[in-house]
Amino acid sequence: MRGYPERAYAKWVVLHFIWSQIAHLVRSRIGGERFRKACEQDAPPIHPLSQGINVLFVAVLKFFRSKRGKGATAVDVSTFFQRKGRGTEFADYFSGRGRALRTKFRKRWNKFENRFQESAKQ
pTM of the predicted model, to two decimals? Predict the structure, then answer.
């Protein structure tokens, strides 16, 4: 998160969202081991996942800016992300107003998923 202090607060929302997407691929012992090895080796499936995570950070911070309020009543980034239910709120935002970034994320996610599935066949 070096160089992006706001990302440090947003990381839990991003992690929650990514887990909701990736859980079905890595819950099995074999899938988990494949994912761990791919991460350790910086294998080709990891590159689009990393790009997708960056898109999610942009989307989460846009979500924050749209919901924090304005002026003296604006909520600070550190307290905004501490509230319960932000992951669910973000998912709703991402399927509505955040559609443009969702499309960008989906392209990268699909590429990751396809490459990850292909690596299982090898």
Answer: 0.87
